[in-house]
Batch of 2 targets.
Target 1
Amino acid sequence: MKGLKTALIATILTIGLLAGSAFGVAAQTQELPRLSSVPETEANEAAYFDAFFAQDLDAVMATFTDDAVFEDQTLGDRLEGASAVRGMQQVVLGLTDAGATELLDRFVSSDGNRAVTVLQWTGTSAVGRPFDLPRVVVHEYRDGRIAKESLYYAAKDAFAQLTEPPSTE
């Protein structure tokens, strides 16, 4: 029985080594994405939010990779690809005038590959109602541009403030 256990362990280790070697060869031949630096992430974050608040869709999209992903963490929606992300950004920019937004806090990871921004998004909605919504935006970076945007907010507040007309009472 001891010989069988030894043979089994040896086989598992051999398979593991062969798989690891194959992975190592594949990793060497496959081009890995370039990591982002802190200064380029900070600059891209500033460009993104400046463009977003100016409602400049082309400038917003210039901050994303071509294969960008957007995830609405509150609703569970996921969009993949620049055209899908562009469509979503266009809808969001059309909802408001986004006039007096305040960036409350921003953090860029020490490797430059992640940025977290906390903001108070305020203005007037397309239905003429003032809104004031806290949001958290997490950007994951690749090659100096946003590869993934994750958005967190309170859904009930957002729907009420952005889509319902002001009360006439």
Note: Residues 1-32 form one domain.
Target 2
Amino acid sequence: METEFKQLLDRKKNIDDVNTYFHDHIDILIDMVNYGSWLIPRAYDSSKKDMEAAIVIGVLLKQVITMIDSVEIQISNASIFPAFLQSRAAFEASLYIDWIIKEESGKKANYYYVFNLLDQRKWALRLIKGTAQQQKFQNDIKELIIFSKLDFDKDKELANKQLEEINKILNQPVFKQIYEQFEVIYKKGKREPNWYTPILQNGSLGIIARAVGRYPQYLFYYDKGSKVMHSSSYTDHIKFSKKDNKIIFEPIRYLNDIDYLFRYSMQMIVHTYSSIIKKYRAGEVNNYIKKYTKDWRNYCLNIPGVNYKSA
């Protein structure tokens, strides 16, 4: 078993630092996630139990909570930089929640559902011999080791059954028009659409953020997560020394930007719960405000930062 190169990866020191300086904030993040785990069944119980509720509560709210739970796990292990990916994913789901419940909720939820059905349909077609999708898929992955382990004959029956079920749903009047809109976009073939593409045409997540009044958060927070996602920033990994023109490698685990991550995650989950409660549990608004004020606000507003000095 290899030992870590301490100058780049010192797990114990950084985890100890997190426990020493951010123990209370981690506890609050855990409390927020715990609160959300109860909010899911409460909100759904108060909903119309329709497609909107299934997507907004069962998918998107759960996505937010799942991602913040992952953020807490990563912070507790001093893995700060990668945790921005989970916060980014949670923020995206949070924007979708606000955008869906703002207006035309049922319509937007249906588009989300059909888009996911089409994705499942695509994978079913890839497993059925003779389809154009299977031939292209077979050619695209032929260099992967996994290709030799795929049994298309074995999976054909299951794929055909799944395809039949999906097509039956897509041909229902409530979904057929949406399905046909996506088909037009797919045939153009320029790029893979998002679930909201037929509604917004050439819209983007930034337009959604602006529509729900959260564009400043999108600019400040989402951009950070995107740079982590797409490996588009060198400054999180290396720095150039002005004295001797050497490269300084940043540690794999360290606490830089931990305050930024806490603030991003806490503000976003507090906002998300507020949106859900106002929509589905209006009678709980005052209790939620009391919960935030008594248990969370002080920690959300007072997050210590970390500064490293070069040795």
Note: The beta strands are 238-240, 247-249.
